[in-house]
Amino acid sequence: MRKKIIVWAAAVTLCLTALTACRSTQQTPGEYLLYFPVSRDVSYGAALGTQRWEGGDPPDPRELLEVLLDGPTQEGLRSPFPGAVTLQFAELYEEEKLLRITLSEQYGGLADMAQTLADACIVMTVCQHPDVDQVEISSDGFWASRPASRILSPAELELDSLLP
Question: Which residues make Cβ contacts (< 8 Å) with residue 57, sequence separation at least 6?
Answer without folding.
Answer: none
